[in-house]
Amino acid sequence: MSINTEFYRIKRLPPYVFAEVNKLKAKLRKEGQDIIDFGFGNPDLPTPQHVIDKLIETVQKPRTTGYSVSRGIMGLRQACARYYQRRFDVSLDPETEIVATIGSKEGFANLAQAITAPGDIIYAPDPSYPLHAYGFVIAGAKIQAIPAITADEYLAGVKDALASAEKPPMAIVVCFPSNPTGHTAEIGFYEEIVAIAKANNIIVLSDLAYSEIYFGEKPPSIFQVPGAKDVAVETISLSKTYSMAGWRMGFAVGSPHLIAALARVKSYLDYGAFTPIQVAACAALDGPQECVDHARETYRNRRDVMVEAFGRAGWEIPSPDASMFVWAPLPEKFAHLGSLEFSKQLMVHASAAVSPGIGFGENGDGYVRIALVENEQRIRQAARNIRSYLEQGPRSV
Asked: pTM of the predicted model, to two decimals?
C-alpha cells in the first residue's frame, strides 16, 4: 500500500472550512494585525476558583494519578445524577444510565461508533455542530440533512422526511439550545420527537451542551418527557457552563441499553478522564453555582452590547435566546459573497474573525457565527472596524 492512498473514512470528510479561516487568521497575526477573535467558541472566563482548588488538592494525592475508570468514577456519576434531579427533576441511575465522557464531543462520537452500521440513515440538523453529522459519517452512516434554523423548522422537516421515506432513519440528532443558531426548543418539541421515535423504532441523540447559557426560559431536557429513556441519550458538557473547555469533561445519560453500548466501546479506547479532573468536576456540579449565574449574565451583557453596537454599525443581527453565539445573516449587499468569502474579507478589512456558516451545513451559508468570547470593549472596537468595512463595500482579500 502506498502512503499516498486515500483512506476510506478520510475520503468521506470534506475539507474543514474553519481551517482555511484559521490559516488566514494566523497569517494576519504574524504580520502584526490585531484580530478580534469571535471565531472559536473558547470561553475566556476563568474556571471557578473552588474547582481549581479541588484539582490542586486531588492531584497531590499519589493514588489519584494512575489509571482511572472509562465510565467515570462513581462519585462523578452521582454528581451528574444530582444535577439532573436538581435542574430537570429527572432521576438517573448512576450505575446504568450515566457515563462520564472526555468532553461531550468524545461521548457523541463514540456513541455513533457504538450504534451505527454502514449504510444506516441518520437525520441531522442543518445547520448544526459539524460532529452531529460527521461523527456518523466517520462511522459509515448516511446523513439526511434537515433544515434547522429553528426547532419548529426541524420538527416539520423530520415529519416531511419520514412521510416520504422508504424506511425510518436509525437515529435522529437534536441540539437545542442550538450551536450555531442560539435557538431553543420547548418541551412540546421533545414530546413530539419522542413520540415519533417510539412509533418508528428510532434512537434520539440530544446534545444539551448549552443547558445553562440561556437568557429567557430555562431550556428543558428530553428526559422531562415521560418514557424518553426508552429511546434517547443526551450529552452534556461542563465546558461552557463552568468555563472548563480544556478540561474535557462531559456526560452521556439516558437509555441503559445505549449507555451500555457506549461504555463497552469506551472500555476498549480509554481509561476515562484524569481522576483529579473528575474530582474537580464533582466540585463544579455540587459546589456553589453563583459562577454559573455570573457567566450567564456576562454572555447576556455581551450579546446585548453586540446587537446594539453592530446594529449602529449597519449590521442588524438577531438577539439569540441562548448559547454563547450570535447567528448573524450576512449584510444584504454582501450576501452574494457567501459566508466563507465574507468571513475572510471581514478579517482582512475589519480585523474581526467569525465562523463562516457554511462550516455548519449548506443551510448555514447565508450566515456567520459570532462567539461571545471577547469583552465589551473589544466588541465595540470590532463594531467600529466593521462599520468602516460595510460603508466601503466588498473588497478583495
From this structure: 0.93
Asked if residue 333 and residue 264 are part of one domain, the reply reads: no
pLDDT tens digit sequence for 64-90: 999 999 999 999 999 999 999 999 999
Question: Comparing C-alpha atoms, which of 315, 304, 307, 392 is closest to residue 348?
Answer: 392
What values do phi and psi take at 208, rounded to 5? -120, 40
The total of structural domains in the chain comes to 2
For residues 154 and 294, membership in a common domain is answered with no
DSSP string, 335-364: GGGHHHHHHHHHHHHH-EE-EEGGGG-GGG
Phi, psi of 173 (to 5 degrees): -95, 135
> Is residue 60 helix, strand or coil?
coil
Query: What is the rounded distance in angstroms from the CA atom of residue 172 to the CA atom of residue 128?
Result: 13
pLDDT in tens, 95-148: 999 999 999 899 999 999 999 998 999 999 999 999 999 999 999 999 999 999
Q: Cell numbers of 14, please? A: 470534506
Domain of residue 82 covers 60-286
Average pLDDT over residues 8-16: 77
pLDDT single digits (tens) 163-211 = 999 999 999 999 999 999 999 999 999 999 999 999 999 999 999 999 9
Where is the domain boundary, 243, 263, 286?
A: 286
Task: Give the pLDDT score at 2.
Answer: 60
For β-strands 367-371 and 355-356, DSSP reports them as: antiparallel
My answer on whether 282 and 307 are in the same domain is no
